[in-house]
Design goal:
By secondary structure, the chain is an alpha+beta fold. Helix content is 27%, strand content 34%.
Length: 176
């Protein structure tokens, strides 16, 4: 009986850790999206690791800019006319990846983000992005979360697609 209780406590503590990481990843993604949308420059910059890189393909080839350079384009305390959402995220250990969408009047920007957990904080370490037509959608090997029309540009915690549950192994009577 003591073994069962110990295993249950261990399982619950591991479950709580996973939930905590999920919440922290989602919070970092929301800091990136909502910080930019609402003109909260420091919140936006706080989502990134200090020397994070950003790359895209422009008219002249691959281009990049620093987080500081991108943040300088945000008008402090002015709301942008865009809606955002977290399309998906996943993680293992101290590494995570996420896909986000920012929809503007005439196009969308899709961000493919890599995050690392450093000092118990999830930070965006790299961002590659693509500007696409409003009618285009992200192609993914996994199901994508649908947008919540009630969100009104907000990306609530837990809105990312949930991974499919792992199939349970049948119980085996080992004699204990």
């Amino acid at each position: 009986m003591k073994k069962i209780i110990a295993i249950a406590i261990l399982f619950l503590s591991l479950s709580a850790k996973a939930q905590s990481d999920a919440e922290l990843i989602t919070q970092t993604l929301n800091d990136f999206l909502e910080g930019g949308t609402n003109g909260e420059v420091e919140r936006f910059k706080g989502a990134f690791f200090s020397d994070a890189i950003q790359k895209a393909v422009g008219k002249t080839g691959v281009t990049g800019m620093s987080v500081e350079s991108l943040a300088s384009k945000i008008k402090p305390n002015q709301k942008m006319e865009r809606t955002t959402r977290i399309i998906s995220w996943s993680y293992a250990g101290t590494a995570a990846t996420a896909v986000t969408e920012s929809e503007y009047a005439s196009n969308k920007i899709i961000d493919l983000l890599n995050l690392l957990k450093v000092n118990n904080q999830w930070k965006i370490i790299s961002r590659v992005y693509s500007r696409i037509e409003k009618t285009e959608e992200v192609t993914s090997s996994n199901p994508i979360a649908s947008a919540d029309p009630k969100a009104k540009g907000k990306t609530p915690a837990g809105s990312a697609a949930k991974p499919a549950p792992k199939p349970k192994k049948p119980a085996v009577d080992d004699g204990w």
